[in-house]
Amino acid sequence: MLNHIVLIGRLVRDPELRYTSNGTPVANFTLAVERNYTNRDGETEVDYIKIVTWRKLAENVAHHLGKGRLVAVEGSLQIRKSKGKNDNRTYINPEVIANNVKFLDWPSDSKKNESRSNMDQDDSKSMDDQDDQDLSDDDFEVPF
C-alpha cells in the first residue's frame, strides 16, 4: 500500500506551535494549493489543506515560516473522524502528516520572522487545550 502526497503551496497564516502533554512539539498550518485548471469563469480554484508537523520539523516550521511563504510538503494523508458536540454528527478532517517541508522562497523581512520565533516560544499552548474546528474557505485570505 502507498500513501504518499507532495504539495506545493503558500501558507494561509503563520504556523501554530504547540506541545503535547509529554513535551513533543507539533506545528499546524494550512496550505493554499492552486488547482491545475481553471473553472468556467476562467478563475483558478484553490484548495486549503491542513498540514501537521512533529518534533524538530515542527519547531523549524514554526520558527522560520510565516503567512504567504511558498513551501513544498511531502508526507501522507490522514483522515481523522470526530463526533460533534451532540454526538450525532461526524466530522471528517483530512490532513497531511508532513515528514518533509522544503522552503521554496526567502522571507521578505528576516527580522520580522526572528521576533515572531521568540513570541512563539512564549505563547506555545498545550495540545490538550485545543478543540478541533471546521474551517471554511471564507476563513482564509488567498496568499497569492
| CATH superfamily caption | Nucleic acid-binding proteins
Determine the oligomeric state from the structure: single chain
Strand content: over 45%
How many helical elements? 2
Largest sheet: 5 strands, mixed, barrel
Order of helices and strands: EEEEHEEHE
**Number of distinct beta strands:** 7
CATH arch. level architecture:
Beta Barrel
Query: CATH topology, anyone?
Result: OB fold (Dihydrolipoamide Acetyltransferase, E2P)
Mean pLDDT: 80
Low-confidence stretches: 115-137
Label the structural class.
alpha+beta
Number of domains: 1
Query: How far do the termini sit from each other?
Result: 35 Å
CATH hierarchy class name: Mainly Beta
Describe the protein's architecture and organization.
- The chain is of the alpha+beta class and 144 residues long.
- It has a single domain, classed as Nucleic acid-binding proteins (OB fold (Dihydrolipoamide Acetyltransferase, E2P)).
- It has two helices and seven strands.
- The chain has helices at 55-64, 110-123; strands at residues 5-11, 16-19, 25-38, 44-54, 70-83, 90-103, 125-126.
- The chain has a five-stranded mixed β-barrel with strand order 1-3-4-6-5.
- A hairpin with a 5-residue loop joins strand 2 and strand 3.
